[in-house]
Amino acid sequence: MALAVHKYDAVVIGAGGAGMRCSLQLARAGLRVAVLSKVFPTRSHTVAAQGGIGASLGNMDEDNWHYHFYDTVKGSDWLGDQDAIEFMCREAPKVVYELEHMGMPFDRNPDGTIYQRPFGGHSANYGEKPVPRACAAADRTGHAMLHTLYQQNVKSNTTFFVEWMALDIIRDAEGDVVGVTALEMETGEMAIFHAKCVLFATGGAGRIFAASTNAFINTGDGLGMAARAGIPLEDMEFWQFHPTGVHNAGVLLTEGCRGEGAILRNKDGERFMERYAPKLKDLAPRDFVSRCMDQEIKEGRGCGPNGDYIALDLTHLGAETIMKRLPSVHEIGKNFANVDVIKEPIPVVPTIHYQMGGIPTSIHGQVVVPKGDNPASVINGLYAIGECSCVSVHGANRLGTNSLLDLLVFGRAAGNHLIATALSSKAFKPLPANAADYSLSRVAKLDSSTGGEYPQDVANDLRKSMQLHAGVFRTQKTMDEGVVQVLAIAERAENLSLKDKSKVFNTARIEALEVANLMEAAKATMVSAAARHESRGAHTVDDYGDTAEHPLGRNDDTWLKHTLWFSEGNRLAYKPVNMKPLTVDSIPLAKRTF
Amino acid sequence: MLTDLEVSKLRWRCRRGFLENDLILTRLLERRGANFSEAEHVQLLSLIALDDNDLWEIIAGRTEVFPEGAADMVATLRETRVTH
């Protein structure tokens, strides 16, 4: 079957912040760049980011990149690679000022400098006191960023393919990546994108969980494609719970609430974070706050008739501050909790928010895999950036504001790396004869399916299982049971059926293809989690509690290493954490307290 | 009454960048299925062509600025928002 072939120097999959920052860098250098997106670019999930971009500008108080570096290493519970973290924190002011010069409407101080707000986990002088480091555009930072980048991309002649879903990576006999297959929703036709390099910027897979702050589009498509192509997924057991998801809805209340002074209270009205984190209090990192909330609920101090949530109190901030600085929080209170946050606290619970793991990469965004003695051998022609990647700057837990920063720094870095390799003068490697066969067979199987289950039924069962077995409450027993259950659900997903077999805009077919990607992300998460016999960052397991030998359950002797999960055979391998920064001394291992 | 193709396109374009819009629009589509008049369909298309934050401001009732002629669908979405 002859498919249409589109030829570009670079093909970027995903049009969120990372994808568009990268495509902009490439397009400005005169390269032919295509960006494929399931949805219109400014409707990518980056639009949901409210809080800000972390950068040590020092506009409000003394700050420097090394304080930011320290906070990020500590926040990661020492699982982050210190070379990557140094790179990100040093680059941060530069990428913020670049965005400012592109027209990003940052909030301002009276003297015209960028306003910065405090955020959980960010401190001055190595944990001494909170420091305002988040550069924001009211509570629409992601929205403003996407619009700024989209406009700049249009100006620079990036070509957008909107409502296209990438299906599979095309690798040649040497294992190099030479393109992707993709499906156009409008026609239902498949095409080949032949490229000198492919960049994944597909976001996370937050929809593998039932309670999630993620939009419905976050189905881990890049992870699925990578896993099917034999590329391992790194550290997928680490998922961040946002402390303040609206109870029973999942909708996120920005951490900016607590930055502006909101307080978490238990049923007695106590500001319980003072007990757990005397210095940072409500501004301690997300995993720490989530665990404290969990502890309060488990010990019977939760709020409400069932004692199953915590109250987030903004009432003392006053109507003017709330309406000026946190208008969306006011609306969310009204619409998803039936609460006026000016007058009464809003019920919140820890909710799945961010995927720390992903496709393993170098600091230039190159996808790297173990080969012989080398734990990080480069796959030619393939890059991954943003939430779908694991570089790893977030380690076992991400600091707030470091996600938007990650998109900008590594989107730009991947672009620069490709430009430095003189991509424009490189020849296209030929496509293999069977370039699209695998994708065609996957789609043909769906189109001829009969008698199987519907994609959404299987996906819903997966989400329920993941929530139960790999949620904020983890025990070794539930995780082990989860492995068995998730693998059984994955088998069911091999035999999906479609009611509608039409080609044009067949959303059921798209959803079935998404389910295949969700399954890979879920298996990686469940298997990696059950195998890690310790507590670290967001991976907190009741069985591995605080002991003298392993403070807070963290076992550095055995588990200071990155997990690599391979889809084939559900195999696990491990690789060392890079404790050596680029130019400064390592931040030595320490107990993570606040 | 919408065609199957129109329903499919609507379903996909109601996939949004953030969860709030996903939840309200999905609630609407689940309740109504294909039961939209042509006028309602046109109005809904004009609204979902907006950016997510702008759409949410309208749904949440923070602004009365919305595409011309879309008042009825705005009222429907706001009703969908508050009737859980």
Tell me what you see in this structure.
- The complex is a heterodimer of chains A (594) and B (84).
- Chain A is of the alpha+beta class.
- Helices cover 33% and strands 20% of the residues of chain A.
- Chain A has 16 helices and 22 strands.
- Chain B has one domain (4-82): DNA polymerase, domain 1 (Orthogonal Bundle).
- Chain B is 65% helix and 0% strand.
- The radius of gyration of chain B is 12 Å and the shape is globular.
- The interface between A and B is medium-sized, with 38 and 23 residues.
Quick recap:
The complex is a heterodimer of chains A (594) and B (84). With 594 residues, chain A is of the alpha+beta class. Helix content of chain A is 33%, strand content 20%.
Features of the shown structure:
heterodimer; A: 594 residues; alpha+beta; 8-stranded mixed beta sheet; 4-stranded antiparallel beta sheet; 22 strands; B: 84 residues; DNA polymerase, domain 1; globular
